[in-house]
Amino acid sequence: MLAMQYAFVLPADYDMGIVRRRIAEKGSMLDDFPRLRFKAYLSADRRGARLPTRQNLYAPFYLWDDAEGMNAFLGSSGFAGVTQAFGWPEVRTWSVWRGEVSPEARQAVCASRDLENIAPYTDLDELREREADKVRADLADGALAAVSAFDPTHWTLVRLRLWHELRPELARDGRQLYDVGHVSLPRRHLSPVTA
Asked: Helix 77-86 vs helix 67-74: angle between axes, to the nearest 10 degrees?
């Protein structure tokens, strides 16, 4: 599996209603997209004050079965439309250690995302096990989806969680909180998906 995210940092005075309307109008277009485990349509509104943030962001996050699904999306008219509306993004990808998605993930309203550097010579098997433990703990704490993944090119770890309620208490340095506008899932997603 692959995790993928791109982000658009929008001007401080940007009308984030434009992003919310776009998500409402186009969000369901990726429901049942081949090889997509989920897409979370994430945004942060510095003026909205629902969740603490310093920037206006539109930053969708994807969990793919494989590179074939990701490549099909990046070559699609849907991605071309995003780039025409917001610009040409840097698309980050991570190899997934653990990804779990519940059928209730569509009910998510809040997401948390941590990006951490992996120190040189880290025991990666041990780190992967700790991340699996964190996934289980966060699911037990109410997360509707939990992904832990790493990028061996830049030695970074990403940890994304989807939550069923606003969780401003999750705010901390180095963590980005987002509003979730929509979650695309495959129609066949009737039971939890684990990897």
From this structure: 60
Tell me which residues of the chain have a pLDDT lower than 50: 190-192
Q: Which fold has domain 2-194?
A: Alpha-Beta Plaits (3.30.70)
Q: Which two tokens stand for residue 79?
A: 């991605």
Six-digit token string for 152? 């061996």
With beta carbons less than 8 A apart as the criterion, state whether 94 and 61 touch.
Answer: no
Listed by start position, the domains of the chain span: 2-194
Q: What are phi and psi of 186, to 5 degrees?
A: -70, 145
Supply the pTM of this predicted model: 0.93
- Counted residue by residue, the chain has a size of 195
- Model pLDDT for residues 42-90, shown as the tens digit of each residue: 999 998 767 778 899 999 999 999 999 999 999 999 999 999 999 999 9
pLDDT of residue 166: 87
How far is it, in rounded angstroms, from Cα 154 to Cα 94? 10
Whole-angstrom Cα distance, residue 180 to residue 60? 9
Question: What is the rounded CA–CA span in Å between residue 26 and residue 50?
Answer: 23
